[in-house]
Design a protein that fits this description.
3-stranded mixed sheet, binds NADP nicotinamide-adenine-dinucleotide phosphate, Rossmann fold, 355 residues, NAD(P)-bd_dom_sf, single chain, transmembrane, membrane, Epimerase_deHydtase, 7-stranded parallel sheet, 15% strand
Length: 355
């Protein structure tokens, strides 16, 4: 099946435009001369929109701001109206600091996706939706890689193990993606492409993000993990590649289905070792803690469950990113520079003490 060509003279709607990833997407769309309907929860809130207004300056494209909340029915109607392409990124990316995982994560992710897609259905104009999913929708725990050939996850894999009580963020992502495919299949006006990034790193255009991406670096450099880190591995990808993937997926008629967008897998200690080369004055961890010790202290020290430790610490895995390269044309940059740029960000923003 050949996909749809999108009319570039029509506005493009992007939800959650204030976010870490979305801000880069907005910048690329504006640089391409497009009109962008950018939704944020409160368009009057300076901390959500100032960096977008700044990014728009001097760009050939036009930025229009809209207020819309994922859990407010119909609130995306106005922003979506007249758009052929909708990029839906809005979804909470938090893994701690909440009491009720359903209200904090699952409801906004799943009901929000339904809400946005129903606006697309009502619009009469939308022809393609690009959804920001995640590798969290591909797998639940690293231990699952043991059953994969070469420990490699592909777009054919689905997370079938997360729940509201175990890995609720991952659960919110897989349920939202499943909901999107279900709604997509019930109509024929628009096709759906999902971008499934791994942990996104690299420079941020906004200080005002709750993204866990920013927290990981801050935790490494703050000294909290000075005594050691668990052997936890993360697949990483540069935020600019992820943003570019959304734009390419939006306009490439051949883009269909799911796209894993991920660079290499590194352990926390490997990340710390890279950073130490450039930032030797920071109290970065120098060793890995044994799993039994992590299992003992993590629930209290880091609010992480023993089930999470059991199923994620000490396991290796990777992702097949072939489709993102061959269909979308993504070229992955070396991550050493990205990691250092990412580490500098909370220092520049005053979130991590300058040493
Ligand atoms: P972020 O900076 O925290 O952005 C999340 C966005 O979601 C914010 O713009 C936020 O809007 C919006 N949002 C949250 N709750 C909302 C609600 N009830 N109504 C409307 N908007 C709401 O995080 P991010 O890292 O850029 O994440 C963006 C997307 O990428 C998410 O779907 C996330 O799951 C996905 N993702 C992220 C990573 C990563 O490593 N960062 C990896 C894979 C997938 P406000 O500013 O108005 O609060």
């Amino acid at each position: 099946m050949v996909g749809r060509a999108i009319d570039r003279s029509k506005p493009v709607c992007i939800t959650g435009a204030s976010g870490y990833i979305a801000s880069w997407i907005v910048l690329y769309l504006l640089a391409d001369g497009l009109t962008v309907h950018a939704t944020v929860r409160d368009a009057r809130k300076a901390s959500s929109v100032d960096h977008l207004l700044k990014a728009a300056q001097g760009q050939p494209g036009v930025l229009k701001l809209f207020s819309a909340d994922l859990i407010e029915e119909g609130s995306f109607d106005e922003a979506v109206r007249g758009c052929e392409l909708v990029i839906h990124t809005a979804s909470p990316f938090i893994i701690k600091g909440f009491k009720d995982p359903y209200e904090a994560l699952v409801r906004p992710a799943v009901d929000g996706t339904r809400n946005v897609l129903e606006s697309c259905n009502r619009s009469g104009s939308v022809r393609r939706v690009v959804l920001t999913s995640s590798v969290a929708s591909i797998y639940g725990d690293a231990i699952e890689a043991l059953s994969k050939r070469g420990h490699v996850f592909t777009e054919a894999d689905w997370n079938e193990t997360s729940s509201e009580s175990h890995q609720p963020y991952s659960y919110s992502k897989v349920m939202a993606e499943r909901k999107a495919w279900e709604i997509n299949k019930a109509q024929s006006a628009w096709d759906l492409v999902t971008i499934n990034p791994s942990l996104v790193v690299g420079p941020s255009l906004t200080r005002n993000t709750q993204s866990t991406s920013i927290d990981v670096m801050r935790d490494l450099g703050s000294g909290r993990q000075k005594t050691g880190v668990p052997h936890l591995e993360f697949a990483l990808v540069d935020v600019r590649e992820v943003a570019r993937a959304h734009v390419l997926a939006g306009f490439n008629p051949d883009a269909q289905g799911r796209f894993i967008v991920s660079g290499p897998v590194v352990s926390l200690l490997q990340m710390a070792n890279v950073l130490r080369g450039r930032f030797p004055q920071y109290p970065l961890p120098t060793r890995e803690l044994p799993k039994w010790l992590v299992r003992w202290v993590a629930p209290i020290a880091a609010g992480v469950s023993r089930a999470f430790i059991d199923q994620n610490v000490g396991y290796s895995f990777s992702f097949d990113n072939t489709r993102s390269q061959s269909v979308l044309g993504i070229q992955y940059r070396l991550l050493t520079d990205t990691l250092c740029e990412h580490f500098e960000q909370p220092i520049e923003d005053g979130l991590l003490r300058r040493r």
